Amino acid sequence: MKKSVGRRGFLVSGAVVGAGALVTACTSNAPAATPSSAAPQATTAGTDNDQPGTKVVIGFSAPAADHGWIAAIAKNAETQSKEYSDVEFKPVEPTNDINQQISAVESLIAAKVAALVILPNDGEQLNQVARKAMDAGIPVINLDRVFPDKLSYRTWIGGDNYGMGVAAGTYVGKTLKDKGVTNPVILEIQGIATLPLTMDRSKGFADALKTFGFTVTAKQDAKFTVESGTQVASNLLQAHKKIDAIWNHDDDQGIGVLAAIKEANRSEFFMVGGAGSANAIRDIAADSGVLKATVTYSPTMASSAIKLARLIAQGKGLSDLVENSVPTSITLASETITKENAQKYLPLGFES
Fold it and tell me: Could you tell me if 348 and 251 are in contact, meaning their C-beta atoms sit under 8 angstroms apart?
């Protein structure tokens, strides 16, 4: 079955700091250096785990870079792999076609790579080929969009999508309460409504709002694209003459959402974004528009996935843990970025 998923299929909450903390935890207690580029990149702390070891080939498969977040995922994975003289990075052609990604992963299995890092277009549809890799003795590091069968991966690393919704809902709820707003009109612009990650984000958002006595007035998905973001936001703006708050799940599609808001000349509400893009963080820092915060879901997780793949392939564990092996699941935290802390997060933002 051919199915194209334009982008993140399951995602966590954005975890800018969480990812950075994990990268350091893999090897050292030393603080990570601040990346100098706009795209988030991991740093390597010099400890025994980072000393050259057994040569390993790490296969990598991800969707096509049709968005800033996915582009940063691929860049971070490649950049991190170059930090190690004992790692050969073997990426396959990125694609948004399910069948093509399955074929690409099968080619890596046939090449007998030491480990596989896979960000699937759709975890359920690639579950079988991931299980095939595991059955062949190739550990799979499942990045972001999860495989439903736990036997299909050795370790999963990704964001906390439910926590992402909670972070956004908490910010929205508290802000409205502090303003003394009652019966607010709260809109939610999702990514792809049918994805488990989206459902988790929406549930977290609703649960957090409930603690303040609020509910979502209306929601619609925008498919993680700028074009759909513009169209969906336009429709919602036309349907609601008064709005108090909007949560947009994704900063990439947020470019379109903000364009629609500007075109409609609306400013009576505030907006919260999602993922932590550099352009969103810059807008928040400038404090000149409706975007007042974003909740993180950082592509630095790809850097951490490469680190984990190397450790697993070489039979090592995380040096800050007592256990001798890498955990089977690592969930990154979702942080809330506001104008007060925007400059701290900007170096880790990805360009949309």
Answer: no
